[in-house]
Amino acid sequence: MTTSADDQSQPARPSRRTVLSGAAATGLTASALTASTGTGPATAATSTHQTQDADEAAARRAGHRVFRHGVASGDPLPDAVVLWTRVTPTREASPGSGIGPRTTVGWQVAADRAFTRVVRRGRFTTGRGRDHTVKIDVTGLAPATTYYYRFTALGQTSRTGRTRTAPSHDAALASLRVGMVSCANWQAGYFAAYRGLADRDDLDLVLHLGDYLYEYGPGEYGYGPDDVDIRSHEPAHEMVGLADYRRRHGQYKTDRDLQRAHARHPWVVTWDDHETTNDAYDDGAENHQPDTEGDWPTRRARAHRAYDEWMPVRMAGTADLRDGSRLFRRLRFGTLAQLNMLDLRTYRSQQPGLTDGAAIDDPDRTITGAQQMAWLKDSLTNDAGTPQWKVVGNPVMIAPVTFAGLPSRVTRAVDDVTGLLPDDGQPYNVDQWDGYTADRREVFAHLQDEGVTDVLFLTGDIHSGWACELPVEAGDYAVTRESVGVELVCASVTSGNLKDITGAPEATPAVEAAILANNPHVKHLDFDNHGFCVLELTPERAQCDWFVIGDRAEVDTPITWSVSWTTEASSNRVTRAAAPLAGTPEEVR
User: Where is the segment annotated Disordered (predicted)?
Assistant: First the structure.
């Protein structure tokens, strides 16, 4: 069978990120995840078993690894979790190749690592139509329970993964501990941040806030100001076709530290722009050229399809969303926390110009889309039954970051005369919520009007570490100190920060000082480091620890604790903590 046009790689126009700051495929939504989640094997056609026997003999002769891309779990519920792997049925059936036979994969979930107490088992048949990926929504599990899982195919057994279900909705938790990462660029270095997460035993889950992979070709957006590749992307051009996206996902999942982190903890993920292409919006992207790369809905559908195939995530199709897939969703962890994951690319309006104050404040422009906005506001309530901490997985920063430093009445007076200065002041990055101030005001007004407490936005994208309070009026915050929540931003895994892009580390203190001076609600800012965060929630407070890595170009670069910030329950404030969380490995303290 030949591959379709969507399976072909296409030539791509060279591009790189220049600032620091379609319908989804059918049969790949959450309804198609489930494949025999019972305790017995699924029914398979006789011809499939005959083919399986022949494939097994061929695989043994070839001596290739069937489970090259590891295992993963995600989106834990009290009674269910998504399991993932990918099989390579023949040596030639690599990701995106569009070749290889249908293969039946066995799976097991056990209460112990030795698999003496198997609680669920089944079979899943995969093939080239889903790039030989396997995704199973395993149900019938017990809440707040650690499980072990593995896959078998062609006479080989995958590595063993460990996962954990969420607690029951009415469970009163003493704590919840979450790892946070974003922005992992293969070409810019090794994924030491994932090693740091994989080495920990104290995490309930890992939260990935977007830019899990990057679209660029070799020599575009690598290590340092000259974009040197520490290791080069495959395919060796910008990903545009379905085969390109599949190959790139496959390449990233060969990383040793990423495989270990996936196998160690369940993940909850969302995308930002680079899973498709830079600065994406509802009907286009900065790094998409229709004349050479085809129409935007088709390209986005390819990217979303590959993401659905390759990530341990539930993506539900709904008729009233334009691309037929839905990534924004809620996950609950007892009475302590509700995690609300946003999709801030699929439904947003095109980014405005940096000095286009009228567009920045235009209420007809949106970053969330109307349906997601209504859903988000519904999530952010203090209604009976709503968990204490309302946590938002937020791909781009919501805290205002401007260089105006003026009271709001002065800013608006200037805008009345010039029409250039946005209400919240001159932003430095309009790709985040600063470019969509009407949506931000709607969210903040909702929090203020409804008296919502304990709101945490957990954010990626900006390749730097931040701890911020969320001011109702940014220009008046220095006087009023009025805040409706807290935002905590993790640094990138490898993607270039200000120091990397300029090659001038001596310049970053001045930039940090200018931002802090103009934005008193920003309490912590680190433009120099890469790494990850660990967040702990308790009924009394939330604490976030930032961990930083050494040189991204070194596989075994050291990991050290940098700083911690905490917010007391109902305070809407952040204060610096003296030490990392209890249980932090001694070697990084």
Answer: 1-21, 34-62
Long-range CB pairs of 559-562 (<8 Å, 24+ gap) are: 559/192, 559/193, 559/195, 559/196, 559/531, 559/588, 560/588, 561/588, 561/589, 562/465, 562/526, 562/529, 562/531
Task: State how far the Cα of 278 lies from the Cα of 80, in Å rounded to an integer.
Answer: 34
Q: Please report which helix (H) or strand (E) contains residue 258, including its range.
A: helix 256-264
Q: pLDDT, tens digit, for every residue of 186-202?
A: 999 999 999 999 999 99
Q: What is the pLDDT of residues 510-525, one digit of tens each?
A: 889 989 999 999 999 9
3-state secondary structure of 263: helix
Token match 């007004």: residue? 445
Q: Is residue 481 one of the residues assigned to a domain?
A: yes
Query: Do residues 63 and 114 share a domain?
Result: yes
Whether the ω angle into residue 297 lies within 30 degrees of 0, i.e. cis, is no
Residues of the chain where predicted confidence (pLDDT) is lower than 50: 1-49, 51-52, 55, 58, 318-324, 406, 410-420
Which two structure tokens, joined as six digits, stand for 355? 């000095």
Q: Residue 317's pLDDT is what? A: 52
The verdict on residue 11 lying in a domain is: no
CATH number, domain with residue 437: 3.60.21.70
Residues 136, 197 within the same domain: no
Q: Are residues 112 and 200 in the same domain?
A: no
Rounded distance between C-alpha atoms, residue 126 and residue 130, angstroms: 7
**How far apart are alpha carbons 244 and 5 in whole angstroms?**
12
Cα dihedral: 144, 147, 153, 155 (round 10): 180
Of 114, 138, 164, the domain-final residue: 164
CA angle 351, 339, 278 (to 5 degrees): 25
The pTM is what? 0.88
User: Is the separation of the CB atoms in 320 and 311 below 8 Å?
Assistant: no
Same domain, yes or no: 254 and 331: yes
Helix (DSSP H) and strand (DSSP E) numbers for the chain:
13, 24
Using alpha carbons, list the distances in angstroms from residue 372 to 303, 308, 329: 21, 20, 10
446 within a domain of the structure (yes/no): yes
Domain around 112: 33-164
Distance, in Å, from the CA atom of 496 to the CA atom of 488, rounded to the nearest integer, reads: 19
**CATH number reported for the structural domain that contains residue 151 in this entry:** 2.60.40.380
Tokens representing 586? 């001694």
* Number of folded domains that form the chain: 2
Q: What are the distances in angstroms from CA 210 to CA 199, 274, 329, 343, 461? A: 22, 8, 15, 9, 7
Instruction: Report the C-alpha gap between 278 and 214 in whole angstroms.
Output: 9
Residue 15 within a domain: no
d(CA 341, CA 207): 10
188 and 154 inside one domain? no
Query: To the nearest 10°, the Cα dihedral for 446, 448, 454, 460?
Result: 60
- State whether 319 and 285 are in the same domain: yes
Q: Which two tokens stand for residue 397?
A: 């920063």
End of a domain among 164, 194, 220? Answer: 164
Same domain, 80 and 205: no
